[in-house]
């Protein structure tokens, strides 16, 4: 009597269990990603309703960005004014270059300490200090009758610009919704890159008007 072998297939319960295991893997990955975000950012991902950029934040970024824009604009604008400054103050080419050199040195020395300033003081206090340095430097520049006063004015303006430029990025990273950080960082970078591009044009137009 011959025996007929019937292939044994997986029971329905085992198939369902395997399907449940496969379908649960994406959920586990999603939970792991949410846990990673919570560990990195210190909280759960913000809901879509909170992704709107507040009006006060737009005003803050615009104010600080305008100050950074003007500071970088004057950096490239002054290079076109070298002949006028040499004629006005009677200085040589090597001396008049200190107008931009000392400005860049002060900006480079101020930017690294902006992180300490934002931790030590409030963002509003740091912004007011930057505006104060920029305004006082501009007033000194207006009343300068000697070349060394021009250099003092450029030092004050460099401090203001060195504080304002990283402060704008700091405000975006700390205050903006996470989904809008990339967009706002792009706008902030656009402000920084457009200013040196139009600086020589504005300086040349100023010379023609005079």
UniProtKB/TrEMBL annotation:
Domain of life: Bacteria
Gene Ontology molecular function: transmembrane transporter activity
One of the Pfam families matching this protein, by short name: MFS_1
PROSITE patterns, A to Z: MFS (PS50850)
Subcellular locations according to the entry: Cell membrane
UniProt region (Disordered), positions on chain: 1-45
Bilayer topology annotation: Multi-pass membrane protein
Extent of Polar residues compositional bias: 8-24
Residue stretches making up the Major facilitator superfamily (MFS) profile domain: 60-210
UniProt name for this protein: Drug resistance transporter, EmrB/QacA family protein
UniProt source species: Bifidobacterium gallicum DSM 20093 = LMG 11596
């Amino acid at each position: 009597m011959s025996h007929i072998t019937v292939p044994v297939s997986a029971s329905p319960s085992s198939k369902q269990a395997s399907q449940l295991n496969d379908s649960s893997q994406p959920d586990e990955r999603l939970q792991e990603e949410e846990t990673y975000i919570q560990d990195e950012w210190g909280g759960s991902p913000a809901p879509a309703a909170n992704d709107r950029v507040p009006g006060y934040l737009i005003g803050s970024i615009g104010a600080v960005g305008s100050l950074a824009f003007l500071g970088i604009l004057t950096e490239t604008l002054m290079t076109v004014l070298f002949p006028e400054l040499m004629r006005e103050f009677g200085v040589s080419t090597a001396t008049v270059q200190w107008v931009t050199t000392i400005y860049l040195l002060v900006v480079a020395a101020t930017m690294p300490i902006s992180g300490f300033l934002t931790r030590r003081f409030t963002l509003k206090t740091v912004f007011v200090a930057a505006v104060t340095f920029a305004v006082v430097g501009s007033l000194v520049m207006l009343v300068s009758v000697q070349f060394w006063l021009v250099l003092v004015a450029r030092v004050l303006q460099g401090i203001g610009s060195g504080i304002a430029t990283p402060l704008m990025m700091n405000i975006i990273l700390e205050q903006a919704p996470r989904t809008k950080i990339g967009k706002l960082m792009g706008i902030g970078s656009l402000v920084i890159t457009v200013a040196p591009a139009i600086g020589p044009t504005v300086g040349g137009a100023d010379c023609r008007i005079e």
